[in-house]
Amino acid sequence: MKRIETIMRRSELGRFYQCAGKLGIFGFDLSEDHAALKIDFAVRDTEAKETVHAVLDQVHPDSIAIFKLDNEPASESSAVTFFGAARTIETRGMR
Questions:
Q1: Which domain holds residue 41?
Q2: What sign has the CA pseudo-torsion 15, 20, 26, 27?
Q3: Among 2, 45, 94, 95, which residue has the least CB neighbours within 10 Å?
């Protein structure tokens, strides 16, 4: 499983709801931090890339990240990938 975390402006929330419904995402955590919203949800490993690309395409969030979601501690080979508006950063070995 992967946990996807996205940061977006409040004005993008309606587009996220529509996108989530199309993707079959009906459960997510929503929190507000200053003027931005943070949304967390989980998807199967095989659906992570497709889901991230759909959210980027349809919602245009400020940032989106994919985290490995399992019961084992992160290893040097596990990766967390962050997608921002202008760049992609891959971080290895996060604990």
A1: 2-92
A2: negative
A3: 95
Work out the number of other CB atoms within 10 angstroms of the CB of residue 44.
9
CATH of the domain at 81: 3.30.70.240
Q: Cite the DSSP H helix spans in 1-95.
A: 13-23, 48-59
Range 8-18 burial, b when 16+ CB lie within 10 A, else e: beeebeeebee
Number of domains in the chain: 1
Maximum distance among all Cα pairs of the chain, rounded to whole angstroms: 38
The three-state secondary structure class of 86 is: coil
pTM above 0.85, yes or no: no
CA–CA gap between residue 89 and residue 68 (Å, rounded)? 15
